[in-house]
Write a structure and sequence with these properties.
The complex is a heterodimer of chains A (383) and B (350).
Chain A lengths: L11 H15 L13 H14 L17 H14 L7 H13 L2 H13 L4 E4 L15 E5 L2 E8 L10 E7 L10 E7 L5 E6 L8 E12 L3 E2 L5 H16 L3 H16 L6 H29 L9 H22 L16 H11 L6 H11 L6
Helix pairs in contact in A: 1-3, 4-5, 4-6, 6-9, 7-8, 7-9, 8-9, 9-10, 9-11
Chain B lengths: L11 H17 L3 H6 L9 H9 L18 H13 L6 H7 L5 H8 L5 E4 L9 E3 L2 E10 L6 E6 L2 E6 L5 E7 L5 E11 L1 E3 L3 H33 L1 E2 L2 E2 L4 H29 L4 H30 L10 H12 L5 H15 L1
Parallel strand pairs in B: 1-4
Antiparallel strand pairs in B: 2-3, 3-7, 4-5, 5-8, 6-7, 9-10
Classes of the chains: A alpha+beta (383), B alpha+beta (350).
Chain lengths: 383, 350
């Protein structure tokens, strides 16, 4: 399905009200405000609904079946999803691989993979981190060796989100060990049902199997599954991380948490308590400032200005604000702080948010490594 | 989210703001040496410099073009305020520029021709407003920078604005010395004869709060720049101290704070220029003023710490910035006031 209109032509307000009405009419009510990230079997009806409407890929260019939305409209889109409490999809194909193939893939790769991402026929996961390559991602050791018309893959990936739902994985693999570690990395596409692929879920602190380890034991894929040139995978992956940091830096998690902190105040009868008000006002101001900064970055991008490593500030500020808000939720919740179920039978779940804020400061490049990068690349500090 | 490549017309306003900022920066370059020398003196600024800045048109920035002014917005005024903060410029041109369009014709002409220096006397938000009755004003106003050099004040009262002469009967001016070497003025008005002026002083005070936020932003920016340069130059353990990760992370935290301050000032100025009034204007102003008061304080404090012992000497310029932030931060509502106001306005808007 495709959307025939260019939705950028709508005013922001009209766009917002149209998508709001559609989301309210089409989002499965039982999936609102899930306390954990949903698996594919749970969020599939929503994936299908968006796909059939032609709205599954708001950021992709229209010629590839996306909506080609401007960054500002994409933010409105995200805000409306957040507002209604929509679950996040298994979206690595939509937000990561699709844009990468559109930019670097061959025509054959685009034709083969993009429609299947839009329809949900293929669900992708991202194989980047390894046990020995976290913040130092370029130290990755999973290797691919050429054998005739095939690549042979051996090694291990970890923190692979929703690998247990995916039928494909995109991988960063080592194809050369002779030069700088960044220069021997390639980008490969691998079906999860290939012989030699093993997935082992990891239970996190929420007792949720959101992440997995993925093992590769002599896994063979054809040469055509390489994206871009051999040993040039690092720069492509880094280009993608820039988008990820913008997405991870959007105000959505902090905004959601602040709304829940406000609810918690009401729930506990603390709304007018001066200590509670003081904490709330701090977070409110921090969120307003972050939103203003996020909007500045969007405007720069829309004007076509180069945005460099400083975009990482969004991710640090957002995730740490998200964390501080959830820390206050726990502090005010008292004896209810450790309960697993929502306090109001709906979305008010301090402990779940508190736990979710922990990895937010780690994934996508830990906040400490982001600070190292900004110190050197933006502030020009030595060392 | 992925980022489509879009063709957009260049943003003319942004380009203009950049040009104004650069020209002001050029004009004020190195001015903090002069600012240092003017500390602990009366009136604390130079009439010659005032005239030079007036010559540049700064006093008529906000005056509509129909009145032979430059017809510029708050965004432009904030750019200038930020530059004056960067170099600690003592001349209160921004506050005078803010009220120039509101002044009666004769007074405005006097101001623009540098015959008289007229400054606003806004009530602190927690203080009662002076009372204006039958052309006479009574009450108290405190926290007026550079009051010693003013020939008159546009006083905010409970019923509009009142223009009073510094030498008028029933007018007392007390000058309190401050840590930045300036003096804050307090006016005590007792049946002081005044010219009633038809203008919205509440709105002008909002604009003044925002201009103060912009000035604090400039103060914080230079404190940051001086500190960053120092970390690259000062060596211990055989390397620049900026090579140490603990200090690098501190600097990144300050850089993020600065980015947030900049964003809130820009957002508030744009909203007010785009026609925001009343509560929505006040909410944006409070977000910026609270942020910039807190941020300037945090950044200048950290700057002293990162300089080490030299930072606590009067000789090092970095201390000028800490003391400036101490004095400016609390004027027209400090962090606590604006934080509370921002939250209550947001709650009321829901």
């Amino acid at each position: 399905m495709t959307e025939n209109r260019d939705l950028n032509l709508l005013s922001d307000a009209d766009f917002r009200s149209e998508i709001r009405a559609w989301i309210e009419a089409n989002y499965p009510p039982e999936l609102r405000n899930p306390p954990k990230r949903l698996h594919l079997r749970e969020n599939w009806p929503w994936y299908q609904a968006l796909s059939e409407k032609g709205w599954i890929a708001p950021g992709w260019p229209r010629e590839y079946g996306g909506l080609g939305l401007s960054p500002t409209k994409q933010v409105i889109w995200t805000e409306e999803l957040e507002r209604h409490g929509c679950a996040r999809l298994n979206d690595h194909g939509l937000t990561m691989l699709g844009p990468l193939l559109i930019r670097y893939g061959t025509e054959a790769q685009k034709e083969r993979f993009l429609p299947r991402i839009l329809s949900g026929a293929d669900i992708w996961c991202q194989g980047y981190s390894e046990p020995g390559a976290g913040s130092d991602l370029a130290a990755l050791r999973t290797r691919a060796e050429r054998d005739g018309e095939e690549w042979v893959i051996n090694g291990q990936k970890t923190w692979t989100t929703m690998a247990n739902d995916a039928n494909w994985i995109f991988l960063l693999v080592r194809t050369d060990t002779s030069g700088r570690k960044q220069e021997g990395i390639s980008f490969l596409l691998v079906p999860m049902d290939a012989p030699g692929v093993t997935v082992r879920p990891i239970l996190n602190l929420e007792m949720h199997d959101e992440f997995c380890e993925v093992f590769f034991d002599n896994v063979r894929v054809p040469l055509e599954n390489l994206v871009g040139a051999v040993n040039k995978g690092w720069s492509m992956a880094k280009a993608l991380l820039g988008f990820e940091r913008l997405f991870l830096g959007s105000p959505r998690q902090a905004a959601f948490a602040l709304a829940r902190l406000t609810d918690l105040g009401r729930h506990l009868g603390l709304s007018d308590d001066p200590v509670f008000q003081d904490r709330l006002s701090r977070h409110h101001l921090d969120l307003e400032a972050h939103k203003a900064l996020f909007a500045d970055f969007l405007r720069k991008i829309e004007r076509g200005e180069a945005v460099g490593a400083e975009i990482s500030v969004l991710k640090i500020i957002q995730s740490e604000l998200f964390a501080r808000i959830t820390e206050d939720m726990l502090a005010f919740a008292g004896p209810d702080a450790g309960l697993t179920e929502a306090l109001d039978g709906d979305a008010l779940n301090p402990s779940a948010l508190y736990l979710q804020a922990r990895p937010a400061m780690i994934y996508g490049g830990s906040n400490e490594i982001q600070r190292n990068i900004i110190a050197k690349a933006v502030l020009g500090l030595p060392g | 989210m992925d980022i489509p490549v879009l063709d957009h017309a260049p943003d003319e306003r942004a380009e203009n703001l950049r040009m104004i900022s650069e020209s002001a920066a050029g004009l004020l370059q190195g001015d903090r040496r002069r600012a240092r020398a003017l500390r602990f003196s009366d009136p604390g600024f130079e009439h010659a410099k005032w005239a030079a800045l007036a010559e540049m048109g700064w006093l008529m920035l906000r005056l509509p073009q129909a009145d032979d002014g430059l017809g510029m917005g708050l965004s432009e005024l904030c750019v200038i305020a930020r530059q004056t903060g960067r170099e600690l410029v003592p001349e209160p041109v921004v506050m005078a520029a803010l009220i120039a369009p509101a002044l009666p014709l004769a007074a405005r002409d006097d101001l623009l021709a540098c015959r008289r220096i007229l400054l606003p006397a806004f009530a602190q938000p927690s203080d009662p407003l002076p009372v204006l009755r039958d052309g006479r004003v009574s009450g108290r106003v405190r926290g007026i920078p550079m009051a010693a050099g003013a020939d008159g004040f546009l006083v905010q009262t409970g019923s509009g604005a009142a223009l009073v002469d510094s030498g008028a009967a029933g007018m007392g001016i007390r000058l309190d010395p401050c840590h930045d070497g300036s003096k804050l003025g307090s006016l005590t008005l007792t049946d002081t004869p005044a010219e009633t002026v038809a203008t919205d002083m509440i709105r002008l005070r909002e604009e003044a709060m925002l201009a103060l936020a912009a000035e604090l932003l400039g103060v914080a920016e230079t404190a940051f720049d001086l500190t960053l340069a120092y970390l690259k130059e000062r060596r211990q353990f055989d390397k620049p101290i900026g090579a140490f990760q603990a200090l690098q992370h501190s600097m990144v935290d300050l850089f993020m704070e600065l980015s947030l301050m900049r964003a809130t000032v820009g957002q508030a100025a744009t909203r007010l220029d785009d026609g925001a009034t009343g509560d929505s204007a006040a909410a944006a102003v409070s977000v910026a003023k609270a942020r910039c008061t807190e941020g300037a304080s945090r950044i200048t404090r950290a700057a002293i710490q990162l300089h080490g012992g030299i930072g606590y000497t009067d000789e090092a310029d970095i201390g000028l910035y800490l003391r400036k932030a101490m004095v400016l931060g609390g004027l027209l509502g400090g962090e606590a006031f604006h934080r509370a106001r921002a939250l209550s306005l947001a709650e009321a808007a829901q």
